[in-house]
Amino acid sequence: MAHIDTEYQRLEASYSDSPPGEENLLMHVAEGAKSQWHHIENLDLFFQRVYNLHQKNGFTCMLMGEIFELIQLLFVVGFTVFLANCVDYDVLFANKFVNHTDSSKVTLPDAFLPTDVCSARIRHNGFVIFVLIISGVFWLHRFVKFIYNVCCYWEIRSFYINALKMTMSELPYATWQEVQARIVEIQKEHQICIHKKELTELDIYHRILRFKNYMVAMVNKSLLPVRFRLPVLGECVFYTRGLKYNFELIFFWGPGSLFENEWSLKPEYKRGGNRLELADRLASRILWIGIANLLLCPVILLWQILNAFFSYTEVIKREPGSLGARCWSLYGRCYLRHFNELDHELMSRLSKGYKAASKYMNCFLSPVLTVVAKNVAFFAGSLLAVLIALTIYDEDVLAVEHVLSSITLLGVCITVCRSFIPDKHMVFCPEQLLRVILAHIHYMPDHWQGNAHRYETRDQFSQLFQYKAVFILEELLSPVVTPIILIFCLRRKSLEIIDFFRNFTVEVIGVGDTCSFAQMDIRQHGHPAWMSEGKTEASIYQQAEDGKTELSLMHFAITNPHWQPPLETTHFISQLKERVHREATGASADTHPLSLSESEPRSLVANLLAGPPTLGSVHFGRESLTNHAAAGMSDGASALRSLSPVSSSLHLRGSLSAVHRASGLTSRAMAGSGTDARTVSSGSSAWEGQLTSLVLSEYASTEMSIHALYMHELHKQQSRADLSRHTWHRQESDESSDSIPDEVRSEPNTHSRNFPRSHTFPTTAPSPSAIPTSASATSGTSSGQERVKPQSSTGQRRHSGPTTDHFSAGGNVTRSARVPMGGWAEDGQAAPKHHEPLLEESSEDEMPPHIHKVI
């Protein structure tokens, strides 16, 4: 691999997020006028605790949850040690006779060993002593942390009561937007941030989601090593809670991490002169953390097994089919997450798409398994029926050895078999279901649409929506696999990680160092294929994949209607809304989406309502897009009808014009009030306030779904001639640093080949007029500086073609074509239409099912 010497610079923030004239403002308040909440030093932790207390429904619920977590830890360790050392299983299984003077029946206490015998067995077992010591130290750490959290959250409780004027009894019924609106309002009075006169919604989101935005960006740019190619399984993904914890420990808050505090990146990581030294230091730190994980592997593995056993055994016995249920994977949550999207907002979106996703996955039940399951269920049911009949006739049958166990196992077998038998009334409509899913999750590779019936699409979607049993298995394997990934995979990416944090970190006044992608700046990180053409100056290296910048911007603007973005961003938002509204009005005014004929022209939004684009021919230009599609029931209309659980009561029956009338009503209501209309809990009771918030939030959710569908359809049509522009994940995410940025289009000069670099290291590209036509031409780059000059619309070449240049060891350029799912194929070779299915990584962020507050 050749090494390139390039010039680069750290991306600067496109705007300071401060009102005009207040960029360097430092508020001074007289000593006597200072409130208790004046100048909170660590606003990141403060806002995170304010958000956590709201999501946990107040101080009392939070306190009880913390206490029970401590008790659960003691119970799991103590009960396990008791079962292993203090129970006489010969008596319990009736293998040993027990003499009784008063009764012949064996009682449960007869199976318990005497206290002195139990203590002696524990003292003479070295492994048990080791586990108890480790567990005791961990429990004491949790207990100290619990005491500290109680003190901190008591202060947050006082903040809610005294500053926000909200009691703990009101908190469970208040939305987060209402809390946020009050925080923005009290900034003028209490000056909780002295660097800005006014706080914005984006300031609060940035502080709460500072590190999560970095993680979303790294997944979006395929920087984290979570995809692997195994000999038998092929392509698979592994991303568990343990691996995620180690990533955050290394990058953000652990000893020697890249951040010196919650809001500031260490100064040495902002400079490029010592990037190689910093990369070596990071690689060494990753190695030691990996070794620590390896040493603690037995203890962590034992804890994972015990925790899973106590958490899921009862659930599996009560509902054996629960292991066959599906859930959004941890990787899926990170891939589908918008920049600046809070946890409850993400879970609300994914929860709305859960039912459609389950139906879609159930469309692919194997016919062979169905036949086998029906017959196995018949035989197991016959045996179970006989045993139940004998038990009813004489209950002494239960005393026969293994009869009760047989009844239980047969019941489990029948339940499992039924999960493989499809509903005979189910209609196979994968395209329509996939459109409904897209309306909620907002991200989806282009080649899925039109291929929803293929098993390749189903297998790829299972990466985001996996079985609960797979999640449990991955979590159990996590203590063993995590050290291997850290030592052998993540260390190789240390240079790329250093470059990423330097090049994509910006300093915002009043906020600190944030991920530049979280600014949602179309000019710096927009993608030309996602309605940003002519508006963005970003190189391919700087562009967010999958339309993440544009979709995140629309989501944040709709969720926070009082947010005032920069002028360029405002133009993009208003232009998109006006375009959707204009085409929606034209579509609904001319025809009803369910009664369109084949010959009637439609706008793009009408196409969304009319059905799959594969049913008709599409003709589009730069300003007009028309579609002639077949008549009939539309998947888009069904998607709109299923967007909201209250859609029937709101009369949202797929009519797009009704949605926009509702959104206009919402906007007027918001504009006429001092707070977000969707968060106003007005009314004579908390129930009325919640109902109002629910209805208005459903309008906003539907509006975002419409815009997401519109943007995806427009992107698909505009990039139909160049399918390679869209990548879901890229091959280099698990190929370490053996590739170079896509924007590199020229041979390196001789001097630059000895300069170490990573594949995410930015390089400049000459303007089209400056590119030599001869094969021997080389790019003129400076070897003394390391900067990437900002790309301009006239002086920087934009590469949107399907090919990418790779440098071989000899310095020659090898042209390769990018395939839709992110692999690479040599020119002259046909790029595969579909890749092998990827095994999705971990499932949920919480091992036991976790209930999030959905606003």
Automatic annotation (TrEMBL):
Residues 790-815 have a biased composition (Polar residues). Residues 722-733 have a biased composition (Basic and acidic residues). Pfam families: ATG9. GO terms for cellular component: autophagosome membrane; endoplasmic reticulum membrane; Golgi apparatus; late endosome membrane; mitochondrial membrane; phagophore assembly site membrane; recycling endosome membrane. Its main location: membrane. It is a multi-pass membrane protein. It is found in: Cytoplasmic vesicle, Autophagosome membrane; Endoplasmic reticulum membrane; Golgi apparatus, trans-Golgi network membrane; Late endosome membrane. Keywords: Acetylation, Autophagy, Cytoplasmic vesicle, Endoplasmic reticulum, Endosome, Glycoprotein, Golgi apparatus, Lipid transport, Membrane, Mitochondrion, Phosphoprotein, Transmembrane, Transmembrane helix, Transport, Ubl conjugation. InterPro entries: Autophagy-rel_prot_9 (IPR007241). Residues 722-855 are annotated as: Disordered. The chain crosses the membrane at residues 59-84, 122-140, 286-306, 368-390, 402-421. Phospholipid scramblase involved in autophagy by mediating autophagosomal membrane expansion. Cycles between the preautophagosomal structure/phagophore assembly site (PAS) and the cytoplasmic vesicle pool and supplies membrane for the growing autophagosome. Lipid scramblase activity plays a key role in preautophagosomal structure/phagophore assembly by distributing the phospholipids that arrive through ATG2 (ATG2A or ATG2B) from the cytoplasmic to the luminal leaflet of the bilayer, thereby driving autophagosomal membrane expansion. Phospholipid scramblase involved in autophagy. Cycles between the preautophagosomal structure/phagophore assembly site (PAS) and the cytoplasmic vesicle pool and supplies membrane for the growing autophagosome. Lipid scramblase activity plays a key role in preautophagosomal structure/phagophore assembly by distributing the phospholipids that arrive through ATG2 from the cytoplasmic to the luminal leaflet of the bilayer, thereby driving autophagosomal membrane expansion. PANTHER family: APG9 AUTOPHAGY 9, AUTOPHAGY-RELATED PROTEIN 9A. Belongs to the ATG9 family. This is Autophagy-related protein 9. The lineage of its organism: Eukaryota, Metazoa, Chordata, Craniata, Vertebrata.
